[in-house]
């Protein structure tokens, strides 16, 4: 029996193909509440045959959807955005129950989800080509055309927003979509897709195939009849997805891991530095964010003061169920909690005791303490490897050159931030650091409108902004001889 908190979630879900939710009759996945460890619901696990059928159906949906005028697609996607806002509380509760994040944070992510459909609804009738001047004897122009069926493999950490981040621009450009949500958090994708159908998106144009990475994700990423694959997740899995796509000459868009530095200069405001550190690694989805500020590199003259302020702030954070809106919620799954706990042990072996935290909490659910290791050398594993949890390393630097060197000396290059009052230092940091997005005096700056993606092992391509429309279109050139 469902509690009032679970009222937004059905007792069971099926694979959603052509608007029909199939009965759960084969393999299933149990979805758990990270705050308690209790089962929330049961979801069908898509087979390879299910994925193949979803792609076939989506091809039919593509023909219908691309036949709508751009202005009609614009109106429909804006209707979707309004409907999401109308049901913000329901979708926020779903996200908190299946992912664990604080409800206030979930509300913010649902607002971003709605904004994505609104933003790309506004671009749907502005997907334009170019006129190219050749000579007086020719007219030459380009047309941007949709790819057809696009594949979307969505992670568990920000499921509603990341569903929208790729599905919305794909639809705006005239494509159909097949979505494989993470097995830990499939409910939001299923419920959002039903809402899309209710607000004018053809049922065949968006299909959802929840299931395990193999077979569901592997079949989708390697399917020969899709025009692109968008994947957000670990670098190791992203490499496999990219290889499977390229084997079919399918374009992959990969937003992968991060080990992002926050550099604090001696002239920076330490209160700002501490607040942005807390936001970047602890108070946003319990550190389960690819763009988390998981490394702080602080000038040696202010490092002691920074660590003292940071530890005091960390120890004031409340830890508990997301529905009660604590500062820090649970980790998303028991398996992930075990992984984070292993890094507690790795940190102790390399460095000794953390200056705060470092324990799995003895309670129901998947809770760990926000944890800080100080005086961390650059080659330590916890400084180099993505933990994807509330584990922070603090290192020091002596001068600007060393700060840049430490910021760059990892395999990843997703985002980086700097705290300074010196605009020259800020601009040199932005110029010299190898990352796809640079934050100055504010972590998680930017928004739906700003391109997002990484350098090095952090991925290929960019999401968000007008750039995303290019991900889901192909260019056709037309040249006419108009000579006498």
From TrEMBL:
PROSITE patterns: ALDEHYDE_DEHYDR_CYS, ALDEHYDE_DEHYDR_GLU. SUPFAM superfamilies: ALDH-like. The active site is at residue 255. Belongs to the aldehyde dehydrogenase family. Residues 26-478 form the Aldehyde dehydrogenase domain. Keywords: Oxidoreductase. It comes from the Archaea. It comes from Haloarcula onubensis. InterPro entries: Ald_DH/histidinol_DH, Ald_DH_C, Ald_DH_CS_CYS, Ald_DH_CS_GLU, Ald_DH_N, Aldehyde_DH_dom. This is Aldehyde dehydrogenase family protein. It holds the Pfam family Aldedh.
